[in-house]
Amino acid sequence: MAAENIILYHYAYSPYARRVSWYLTLRGIPHAQCVQPPTMPRPDISRLGISYRRIPILSIGKDVYLDTRLQLIKLEALDIPNPPLSASQPDQRAIQRLLSTLMTDAGVFGWAASLLPSDLPLLKNPTFQKDRAEFFGSQPKPDPKHVALREVASVFHFLETTLLADGREWILKTPSPSLADIEAVWPLHWMAGIPSALPKEKFGPEVYPLVYAWIQRFDEAVSRAKKALGKPKTLTGEEAESVILESKYNEGEGGVDEGDFEVVKTGLRKGDEITVGPTDFGAVRRDVGRLVALTAEEVVYETRGEKGAVRVHAPRHGFRIRKGREERL
């Protein structure tokens, strides 16, 4: 697979984008990148007919994937010489899945984000402030700092006293970082790398030596993998669009599960116009497209830009599907 056939739309300090970037690097998958601004608008993505605003976005051929949880599943399924990073045994896969749920769905990112130092230059930028006000929308206000500190400390404590307590190098005792390590490390790595985000007297190598040693090992493993893989080629939005539209689809078209609860209730049929968007953050930016496929795990719809159409894949979990067109911003 040519490097340009996989494109990661991201910006460097997105903690979610790092999950996918680390995966690509650690598995040694050649790819290209299309660097995006941290705030809307993102015309490089709009040219694909996509209004969804969260980063990262991943294209594999002419298929475009939203949400890091789905993106990692699709990358795991790639048929390439380098083996997948997923666990092989059912109990290990359960740990991997539970770590993903803990770090992505249980509020860890929200607690961590509320601990960002208020004097960070980006947080003082009026454009960024306005953009994030739209992003978070009507979501409840963040927990007070002391509550967020307690919750983040509980995650550090959990890893320190359970999965890392026996001195293992990696979460699943693998020879090198696995997907379970990526699922577990990303919010802690993000916080540990921001000066003054976490109070030294309550966090740091002296308090959680096993966790911080693990984070350092992970950094070193990623650095070695980067040297072996080389830097990704950077594409402009126009170049990325051309590559995607000239590519073949990564997956077959698929169909609509007529027994699905939502399909039965709403009467959805293949080819219907639908509106798709996340149910939590960034929910005001929704996509309108033609329903291509729907399973228990994902919804696939076609969007059309000025120069052609792509298939967009979104997970069912955390996304809402509406039949017909809803107003989009």
Comma- or semicolon-separated keywords:
12 helices; 40% helix; alpha/beta; Glutaredoxin; single chain; 2 domains; Glutathione S-transferase Yfyf (Class Pi), Chain A, domain 2; 329 residues
Query: What average pLDDT do the residues reach?
Result: 93
Strand pairing plus helix content: what structural class? alpha/beta
Q: Major beta sheet, specifics?
A: 10 strands, mixed
By CATH reckoning, the class of the largest domain would read Alpha Beta
- Strands ordered across the widest β-sheet: 5-2-1-3-4-9-8-7-6-10
Number of helices: 12
Shape: globular
Helical amount among residues, as a percent range?
25-40%
Total DSSP E strands:
10
Low-confidence stretches: none
Rg (CA only): 20 Å
Task: Report how far the terminal alpha carbons are from each other.
Answer: 36 Å
Please provide a written account of the structure.
With 329 residues, the protein is of the alpha/beta class. It folds into two domains: 6-82 and 232-323, Glutaredoxin; 90-229, Glutathione S-transferase Yfyf (Class Pi), Chain A, domain 2 (Up-down Bundle), CATH 1.20.1050. Helix content is 40%, strand content 16%. The chain has helices at 15-26, 43-46, 68-76, 90-105, 108-113, 121-124, 126-136, 145-161, 179-192, 209-229, 237-246, 261-266; strands at residues 6-10, 32-35, 57-60, 63-66, 233-234, 273-278, 287-294, 298-304, 309-315, 319-323. Strands 5-2-1-3-4-9-8-7-6-10 form a ten-stranded mixed sheet, with helices on both faces. Strand 3 and strand 4 form a beta hairpin. The longest helix has 21 residues, at 209-229. The two termini are 36 Å apart.
